[in-house]
Amino acid sequence: MTEKAQKLIRYNQAIQFKMATLAECEYLIAEHRSALVYSGDNFLPTLAVQGQPYLIVSPFEKAPLGVFVVSDKVHLGLAYIRPPYKYLDRQILEAFLDQVNIHYGFVASFDPHMIPLYLAFMQRCELQAYQFELLYPDLLPKGLPGVTLNLAQPKDVPYLDEMGFLTNSSSYVRRQEIWIAQDGSNRPVGIGIIQPHQSDEDHLDLGMFVNPNFQGRGIGRSIVIRLMEIIVQAGRIPVAGCFHKNFESRRTLDSAGMTCIGTISRLPFNKDLNGENPEGVGP
Fold first, then answer.
1. Which of 117, 138, 181, 199 has the lowest tally of Cβ within 10 angstroms?
2. How many CB atoms lie within 10 A of CB 17?
3. pLDDT beyond 50 at 238
4. pLDDT tens-digit profile of 29-60?
């Protein structure tokens, strides 16, 4: 076996993990983002900026090999191994799972490197959420006539709290991220939300809630359309996400003109697999 071939064998390089600050890892998180086809909604980017980063380092390399971010102490919210070191990916993840108490990881279907790596260590695959983006703003449909959005004011906080959709509604009002939806009779019928994207300033993340007394009338679809109109007029791209069992929200986002661009999966890890998936192990 040649010396070059030996360098490609797993366990051939010393790998270490160094707890770091977000500031020390931001450039690696940005590299990971730039490698993805889509941004998705704020779910995974929020995990990336709120968790504990670990730099992947080796005594034989000057620069970090990548970064892991552990969220809520039990799961991987972000995993990124830089392209020159992808041949070490199984060794790196196996070592991390051995040293840090990680139970499962989240991964987007549009993360082409991490999907096959996670699959090699997974116990099973659990769908977590659908991801949506407005791909064709010129084809944005029309909402119900009379449904309007008005930026929420401090006087609207009691109504927002009554809906029970958000915690700390006043903070959304203060940041000017929440709208009150009204029908043609000026009755409040729901809520619209637009938030900055945690990892991509070209995108804005939207959400909505319909007052239970007005559900089933197309108001949710109209709120989403109005939110997208605001975002498009600001020169940005609307994105959204919904829990995989929330079929009503998925239908609403579809009918409003958004496209399902992928999914987020939750993968419980089997630490005994050692990077292999023998017959009989897995879902």
1. 138
2. 17
3. yes
4. 999 999 999 999 999 999 999 999 999 999 88
